[in-house]
Amino acid sequence: MDDLGSIVTAVTRITFLSLSALLFGWAIFPEYRPVFVGLILGLAVGLLYVRFLSIKVRQLVQLVVSQEQKKFNFGFITRICLVFITVMVATKFEQVSTIAVITGLFIPQLMTIPVSIVVGIRNKS
């Protein structure tokens, strides 16, 4: 369970580093600003998505450990609505690239795979 915290922390750090690089790119390349804004928005909401899901997984683990017979909700509707609102904002404003937002939404989630491999290798040795 401690690995989950280190994975989410590493993904958060990498995402913040990516966000700062994208903000720097937004300032330097004005012709690509809609793409940079879309990626920034997508990464920010994607990071919220990952962190919310990690909280739900921790709650599930606590529920299993306590052996209570309780119904559990992963917050699927909440996460889908978060993504849906983000895509709606991207389609509403011309200054935001919708494709970049959708791409940015997936990046933090896909980043958890290589980060978890690296964390697993580090914890083994």
Automatic annotation (TrEMBL):
Please give the InterPro entries that the UniProt record associates with this protein.
Answer: ATP_synth_I
Q: Which GO terms describe its cellular component?
A: plasma membrane
* Organism field: Fontibacillus solani
The membrane-spanning stretches of this chain are 7-29, 35-53, 74-93, 99-121
- Cellular location of this protein? Cell membrane
Q: Which keywords describe this protein according to UniProt?
A: Cell membrane, Membrane, Transmembrane, Transmembrane helix
Q: By what name is this protein known?
A: ATP synthase protein I
Report membrane topology. Multi-pass membrane protein
